């Protein structure tokens, strides 16, 4: 036959657009609307409903950026829509349609939540989901809380003032477009969904496949049957013409999709946290409404924090969610407090993400969630498998690695192996997104992209509008009803993440293994952007360690009440701010201003907790008997004071800089540093090896300024070409000595930096305090230490251990790691010799190497101190920063671990009557590090001690408890009894036998 395929496809497209779509709503009618504009920040319904509402016309401009307007809509369905007995004819549905003036897609735009007069929520309003079901038997009486959330313009990455209320302006940004009754023809709507699903499938199929033409001819018959003058009257016949095409089952070997409704709601991003709370209410009320009408619909919802917000701010909605959780439709997933970044949170904080998340789900729903759900975080630390398993979870899910700019991950379902050897069953949905609209192209992509073809048959597909919320829609559920088994399409069934994991694991019990981190080959700037937020996180994590340690010690030793509630509240806030757009620095200015304010408040509250505990432990007394008692919260002895205890610190002499040539030398008998007239380190030696650390022909403490203009995603990305433009900041404004410090001042661009170099008595680390007034634009400031070390790999601290990465660029995978994340330290070494660089605020690093003319190798360690991206916060990072760094020549990894704690935990001296405080626990082997000492989450008063093997080798250690206890047992992170590598001897001696990087939690019943 002649080929008229394109002609028929064109006919279908025009008929759908011009005849079917306009026929879905067959009548409209006005409602009465009045409005009240909230003067500033949002108010609860109970306040809003009491205000005076004024008439408002359609077409009225409204909404300053971030403003809120409440609309009161009343009226009755026109009688002519009903039959003579007041009933709605079959095939019709009455709705209220609301368009506050949408300008784009859901989540990045105006949106609203509809309330009944009693304050209960009906559903939300957003683009592509702007209807409210209306009962035609009742008069309409609803309140719509419309939010004028500005579009921050994610597509253009242009600097915008809209991300901060102070600069966003106060002119209206939306125009009220529609609030009216509508009469929906449900048969025409079903025909519209048929065309969308079958038409989508047709276009996704190859043109040489018979199935494609079978669908084409079915459409041709439908087009002949449906009367363009009477679509409503002929839609049912049109649907019948497509029935045969829908009746053909899927190929026997079709890929199987388990579809799970989802709404990835970023806990803050291009909106502040306060707006996320409302976004959660909107999306969740939509999902609960959809569940009422689609009993098979399942919706996976992560982040205990988001549930907690609903519990606090929308208790009525929370009750309905609880019922849906019991019904198995609303599915809490993820086990974490928020979908955190996983590169930067410290070990204990990463553990607490799971403790807080799982505890919430257990307490509120009685559910032990079994998966980690992180579809969108920017890379996954190699410590995660052990943390996930230690929290009692079995599965891990992400898809973000599909964003890699260089390499494609070889697996979609695999065993992910962490630094300690723990493996966790992991899935990357091959649809490559967490917010599918279930378009046929997505389904086809999931099938063709799936890397386990031939051995695995199933993948997960999360569907629903995401990022700014939205979730699933009735149109998406129409797809799930139509493609259960449809020839040419993968099969699809609605299910839960655990349904998927169980099935995938059963069919694929020995999947391939991926060892080590899941490094994301994009968004490398997120280790550095918004330095204040990162510093706040680091400080908070260490203050929490101190607060818990000293409060637990004071409770055990002095019977002081342990501040459970205060610590829990602070932990929750710290955990929230580790969300994957807050700690990474990729949010609008408002979010980071909030974060900085919160960190300041957290520090104040924790200082109070610490002060109260130290006061109790140091003894009250007054007058002459009072001594200076030094508390050491670190795991190792310091200045003669035991780790985790207190004592009288040994007095240390000052190491005074000596004039040397045109610069200075710092020498404490342990190490010796020569600082040139330009303030650069020209020599750095340790007395133990006598070896020079600084590579020949180079200098250390070299500040380097790079042009930093990525192609897109400004706050997120450092593109590799940044290295091509660099200015070495070697011009010195002044070089002087202040007490025991060498002070170097430099001016560059419109910025200024003062470096203070100091060597403490007995210390093997030269400390550099960088005091920076940073006023640059799109620049990256690096601090470089080129060292004479031949290292194939560098070690970087991660949670409960360290990760190795190549220093060379053999493969595309190695090349892509040109910027890496480390916690408190990095290390490069040869057998018997190494150099460690530690920090108190910095995460971004790069470590590379080159061969010199003399045949030796220069390995250069650089810290990424500051950036200055323009989007989404145009003033990110500008201002004053104090960033501490240290370099230790002749250091082992064990030294690096100790220096990392030393840099981040300062001893505290208080005056009191006591001359020592015995640590609650002592560990005989320094390879085994105590990460946390606290009282149990169940508030029983039991003492919890968390430790890990820190050097990457097997370790045996004796643990001595300095308090009376009745029993000791190993637990998981949630403090539930498990088997563990601990034996208790006859005399109560506790022996630990740990594998490399093994994490262990002990519970002492008191
Ligand atoms: Zn996200």
- Fraction of residues in helices? 25-40%
| Rg over C-alpha atoms, rounded to the nearest angstrom | 31 Å
Q: What sort of overall outline do the alpha carbons produce when their principal axes are compared?
A: globular
The order of strands across the largest sheet is: 31-32-33-34-43-40-39-36-37
Which residues sit in consecutive blocks of at least 5 with pLDDT less than 50? none
| CA-CA gap between termini | 87 Å
What percentage of the residues does DSSP assign to strands (E)?
A: 25-35%
Q: Could you describe the largest sheet, including whether it forms a barrel?
A: 9 strands, antiparallel
> How many helices?
18
Beta strands, count: 52
Structural class: alpha+beta
Write out the distinct hetero groups bound to the structure.
zinc ion
The chain-level mean pLDDT equals 97
Organism: Antrihabitans spumae
Keywords: Glycosidase, Hydrolase, Metal-binding
Protein name: Alpha-mannosidase
Domain Glycoside hydrolase family 38 central: 521-599
